[in-house]
Amino acid sequence: MGKFKHQFVKVGFTNCYLLECKDGYLQIDTGYPKDYSKYKQRLKKKYNIEINEIAHLILTHHHDDHAGFAANLLEESKASLIVHENALKRLKLGLSEIKSRPLNRRVRFVFGFFNKFHEFQYPPVIPYDNVKRLKGSQDNHEVLRDIGLEGVIIHTPGHTEDGISIILDDGSVFPGDNAMNAWYFNILGLQKRPLFIQDLNLIFESWKQYVNLKGKRIYPAHGKDFSIELLSKKLSKFKPDSILYS
Ligand SMILES: [Zn+2]
Questions:
Q1: For residue 39, which of 70, 63, 60 has the smallest C-alpha distance?
Q2: Ligand 1 centre and the CA of 1: distance in Å?
Q3: Looking at beta carbons, which pairs linking 3-8 to residues 24 or more positions away fall under 8 Å?
Q4: HSE (CB half, 13 Å, CA atoms) of 135?
Q5: What residues are paired with 11 via a beta bridge?
Q6: Thinking of the domain 6-237, which architecture would CATH place it in?
Q7: Ligand 1 centroid to 21 CA: how many Å?
Q8: What is the pTM of this model?
Q9: Where do the domains of the chain lie?
Q10: What is the mean pLDDT for each group of 10 consecutive residues in the chain (246 residues)?
Q11: In angstroms, what is the span from residue 159 Cα to ligand 1's centroid?
């Protein structure tokens, strides 16, 4: 089992991860639209990577803090786009759906204010011929294997309907927003759960899959990486269905 070299660039609120692959780099997620130039500068300064070395872009879901500068990056890099089919409609609109609800009262209080002034929009990812659409709830090994990476992409709704997670054979898990770990979120009582949820039981199902698929380390889109044991502990602590406003 190979160990993959992970690199990451934090831009604004989001961690963008980079994995070396057969024909360059696979990037996981982007940041807010305004951060594209900053991102390119950081990529160059930190790793000496040019944008045209990004050969593939995976969006873990369509939210603006993940897909924000995807259109710019795809246009400039000519990378292929890997997304769940449920994301396509929203990507074309360039708009986050805001069906998800706050995890608890504290999140509702803090983000109620933020959401009033936040746009949720981004440059639309217009019909693009180099797209790999992941369908339904099937696990997909081929997409990663085709680009020289060993691992699986799984459909993990719960935060959004189009949520996908990447689990590499070396145990690295990229959950998108299905697990969060920024220190300031602990004040809000998240305990690794997402700020916003559609179905918390599905979030816990995804955590179980990370454990079952031999995940070892979680690399969230927001906050620092952490050990899978922490998710296992939380799983035994939380009782699904007793979740909202805990
Ligand atoms: Zn999100």
A1: 70
A2: 31
A3: 3/170, 4/149, 4/168, 4/170, 4/172, 6/172, 6/219, 7/46, 7/47, 7/49, 8/219
A4: 1
A5: 14
A6: 4-Layer Sandwich (3.60)
A7: 25
A8: 0.93
A9: 6-237
A10: 70 91 96 95 94 97 97 96 96 90 90 80 88 87 94 96 96 97 88 94 95 96 95 84 46
A11: 7
